[in-house]
Amino acid sequence: MTGTFYGRTDLLEEMLELWRNSKAKLMTCRGRRRIGKSTLVERFAELGKAVFWSFEGLPPHSKMTNQDQLDAFARRLAELANVPFRRFESWFDAFKELSERLPRDRRTVLLLDEISWMGKFDPNFPGELKFAWDKRWHSHAELVVVVCGSVSSWIDENILSNTGFVGRISLDVVVPELSIEEAASFWGKARSRIAPAEIMDVLSVTGGVPRYLEEVDPALSADENIKRMCFRPNGYLFRDFDDIFSTVFAANSVVKRRTLEALAEGAREATELASSLGVARNGQFTAMMKELELAGFVAIEHGFNPESGKRMRMVRYRLRDNYARFYLKYVKPHAPEISDGRYAFVSLENLPEWNSIMGLAFENLVLNNFRMLLKPLHLDGVQIFSAAPFRKAADAKGPGVQIDLLVQTRKSVTLVEVKRRAEIGESIEREVAEKVSKLKVPHTISVRTALIYAGRLSKAVRGNGYFDSIIDAASFIRGRG
């Protein structure tokens, strides 16, 4: 295995349990593109001291055929098995030959990667895969077959929700972004010397996506890293958004892109979002949003109304992917100048609305990592009913309120204010106190306040005792969360 591997300890422990008995296992692995699914499976094989055979579907294009996919599979099989290339006429033949060539005398991990691309041009592909599992691979005592892909909706529809595969899936792994602490490991030995604010700014742009973090140069400042990755014609993060959409979202890609562009302006309720897109809020809309969620780009937040104790009537959609948010909000509008090499500047902080955009990006990063807050909020091990932003519009009953993160349990609600500022003074207490006054909860429910911040916090805020919990985001960068 090449490259650097960080985190994923819990997932690997689950996966390694598959070796506990000598029976073949079928596993699915899903997650956002660039999130490290293939690397995780390879690491699993390495730790299990298993032979690792991987096959990957080709990214589709307008002239591609099923034969192209079969030929790519055949070339890879010839390479792995050290046999002459043999052209296959069907997936039945391809899987049959693979079964005959697989090692039989030791543990083996078989990875079928980007499975939706591999089977895109053959409607019988899921059936052939099922036949291969039932009649060929299932008898291999120490084989783990991993069906993996970035188009999670394909796996959901054709494998997980397919009645033909019921009872056959031993493990379904959804690979999330790395946590803030895990992602900070990409700074290596320089991590202890770099100001946490710099690392946090880069993570606010990249999120915890391993492939993006591999592009970070610890020797450069946050400004230089972001400029190099996002604002240069050959920058990896300048090009990747379009690459993702062309390969992952072939169907309805235009409306999906418009959906993310709308959500880049802020979270929206389902009816509001559908209206802004000019589409009906029907089953097709719901399925599209579910597909964007499975692909790792959108968070679907149901939440509870703390005032009534009931589930919110309308779901809200949030653009959870930090990179997509940053690209659509700040990079895409300047794409022509960047492509021509005309977009030049001295400092990112001097760009219009930079602090506002980075503040929202930091807030989004925290929301995606809310579990890191449970211990410092004294909620570790407590059942959480809801952890999501809370928005209430002004009406005849009272003024509106916007809360960055509201964590609800059976006995309490914790109002979490997320703030990125160079200087954070006592005005933050007045801001939060006003929100608390607008939050009407039953007298049986306790209301607690918390602040998670990036910047320099006034000593007065710590000394006043208004906040029940104060969390410096730097503690997670240093691993003291």
Key attributes of the depicted protein:
single chain; 481 residues; alpha/beta; five-stranded parallel sheet; five-stranded mixed sheet; 21 helices; 41% helix
Structure, described:
The protein has 481 residues and is an alpha/beta fold. It is 41% helix and 19% strand. It is built from 21 helices and 15 strands. The protein has helices at 9-16, 37-47, 66-81, 91-101, 115-118, 125-135, 152-160, 180-184, 196-206, 210-213, 222-230, 236-248, 253-263, 270-277, 283-294, 322-331, 335-339, 354-368, 427-438, 459-464, 474-477, and strands at 25-30, 51-56, 108-113, 143-149, 169-174, 268-269, 298-301, 304-305, 310-311, 316-319, 386-392, 401-408, 412-424, 446-457, 469-472. The strands form 4 sheets. A 5-stranded parallel beta sheet has the order 2-3-4-1-5, sandwiched between helices. Strand 8 and strand 9 form a beta hairpin. It is globular, with a radius of gyration of 24 Å. The model has no long low-confidence stretch (mean pLDDT 92).
